[in-house]
TrEMBL record:
InterPro entries: AlkZ-like. It comes from the Bacteria. This is Winged helix-turn-helix domain-containing protein. Pfam families: AlkZ-like.
Length: 361
């Protein structure tokens, strides 16, 4: 079909709305996950962990962390898998997709060498679960290499993670930051059997709905989902969600949003630069002298443009929110400065922390 044509302004508006970052707020974590696709789990809490800031940024002052726990642990509407919370509706396709990754030759070789260990882990969960990984003995015959430094030498967490990708075990809940595991059959609902092709098509459609507009392949591969579109001043043919395109004239307007560096909106760096003109670099792993905006500065989205970076720290020991700087890419208008100031005040209220110095904002 003949590609649609979009201005970059309209492409940005579609992308912002698809990520629930416009003026119309979602109601709860399940609604966020269904639309955004996934809620990244990351313990870095310079302000708050990613799973919490992603939800507060979208829902606003009505969001309480207890809402996320309820959706995961009691209502079972969200499930933790592969480092993120996903809606249960996405699980059939996601598990088929992840199982294909778990069939990597090195993973299969390690599992084959540890057949007895795998059976012992599953037997322990069947008899005693739910359990923390620390309650399961490490009887691995062959250890996986730890060159990256991301894992401990204990092989139980590695086995559990791999078995979760295979759909054999699942996370029931967390105790602090530690995962509590059980057999997947006692956690996941009954699901339809999908072929790998059906799963990939369903995932591509979800990705496009979450992005609004994305390239056929790349960081957010949507393949042939949606419809072709050309964006003014942007190279290549993209894909657009037809429902998002049809709703373009109903845009409720924008607002200010502070985005955790691991927020889903920031994942596709090439799209950020092509459509938003924002070359985002996470400075967390840069040496301090090379940082421009700070260790874990949060990008500031204003309506459909990235306008600056919030450098702030929630100091629980002192009981304050320190705002080291609001870095402005271009000088703010007075109205824009007030919008950012009000969002900082809302952030402080949500955290339950006073600002260390209100004049810094």
């Amino acid at each position: 079909m003949t590609p649609h044509r979009l201005s970059r302004d309209d492409a940005r508006r579609i992308a912002v709305r698809a990520q629930l970052l416009d003026a119309e707020r979602p109601a709860d974590p399940v609604e966020v996950a269904e639309q955004v696709g996934w809620i990244k789990i990351d313990p870095t809490a310079v302000i708050a962990p990613c799973e919490q800031t992603m939800l507060w940024t979208r829902i606003g002052e009505a969001y309480d962390p207890a809402h996320l726990r309820k959706a995961v642990e009691r209502d079972r509407q969200l499930v933790e898998l592969d480092g993120a919370f996903h809606p249960v509706s996405a699980l059939p396709a996601l598990l088929v997709h992840l199982r294909s990754h778990a069939e990597h030759p090195r993973a299969k070789e390690w599992l084959a060498a540890n057949t007895r260990f795998r059976k012992e882990v599953l037997a322990r969960l069947r008899a005693e679960g739910p359990l923390l990984a620390s309650a399961i003995p490490d009887t691995a015959k062959v250890a996986r290499s730890n060159d990256s430094g991301w894992w401990s030498d204990n092989q139980v967490p590695r086995m559990l993670e791999l078995l979760s990708l295979r759909g054999e075990v699942a996370v029931v809940r967390r105790e602090g930051r530690s995962k509590v595991w059980d057999l997947a059959e006692r956690v996941h609902p009954a699901m339809p059997d999908l072929t790998l092709e059906e799963a990939r098509r369903a995932i591509a459609e979800r990705r496009l709905r979450a992005a609004g507009v994305a390239k056929h392949s790349g960081w957010t591969p949507v393949q042939d989902a949606g419809e072709p579109v050309q964006i003014e001043g942007v190279k290549g043919t993209w894909r657009v969600d037809p429902e998002a395109l049809a709703a373009l004239d109903d845009d409720p307007g924008g607002r200010v949003a502070f985005l955790n560096p691991y927020d889903a909106m920031l994942f596709d760096r090439p799209r950020l630069e092509a459509v938003f003109g924002f070359a985002y670099v996470l400075e967390q792993f840069k040496p301090k002298p090379e940082r421009r905006y700070g260790l874990f500065a949060h990008p500031i989205l204003m309506r459909d443009r990235f306008v600056g970076m919030l450098e702030a720290t929630a100091d629980r020991k002192e009981g304050v929110l320190h705002v080291q700087a609001v870095h402005e890419f271009l000088p703010f208008e007075e109205e824009e400065r007030e919008m950012v100031r009000q969002e900082v005040l809302d952030l402080a209220r949500w955290l339950g922390l006073p600002l260390s110095d209100i004049s810094d904002v």
